[in-house]
Amino acid sequence: MDFDIVQTLYMLPGIIIGLTFHEFAHAQTAVWLGDDTPRLQGRTSLNPLVHIDIIGFLMLVIAHFGWAKPVQVDTSNFKNRKRDDILVSLAGPVMNLLLAVCFVILIWAISYIPESILDSNTLNILQSIFVNAVWMNVVLFVFNLLPIPPLDGSHVVFGLLGLKDSSLYSQIYQMSTFILLILIITNVINIVIGPPIEYVYKFLISPLL
């Protein structure tokens, strides 16, 4: 596997911001809905060090597959346990989609800055960083919606089906690492999430082309 240090540096801001805001969104939404656990554990913060798992971060940078520290939630504190658990789960991916939109706006905005203020070389660097940030947040948005535990999509799908507390969910959860590993090794995961990632990315970025 070739490791492009320049490309990696362009990706880092998008990865750090994407992971941090994703977990912050889970934590803050849970607090808003009545569970103070994330706040007591210091997770309602935008400090990347609070949310980033170093192994997961390095895996994401090197292998393009990684993770952050999961936000712990006590669903018994919610007024509507099923609905609120789904809302907390959706908060992370939705935040990544909103970030992707924000970075698209930034790409558009800096293109109007006069060269007397922002030289072309700096502009190209910023555009590369922002474009990579759009891509990374779209990847996080789509990937986390997969209905495989412990990904957010599993909380949504199994919650809607009323199976979140079932033995089936527990059994799948116990095998989740193995399942994800097999999907990655066989490239099935890229076949599944590649098209929606491309579609969402092109939809967001096309107005700038």
TrEMBL record:
Residues 122-183 form the Peptidase M50 domain. It is found in: Cell membrane. One of its GO terms (biological process) is proteolysis. It is a multi-pass membrane protein. Coiled coil: none annotated. It holds the Pfam family Peptidase_M50. Its cofactor is Zn(2+). GO terms for molecular function: metal ion binding; metallopeptidase activity. Its main location: membrane. GO terms for cellular component: plasma membrane. This is Site-2 protease family protein. Belongs to the peptidase M50B family. The chain crosses the membrane at residues 49-67, 87-113, 125-148, 168-193. The keyword Cell inner membrane does not apply.
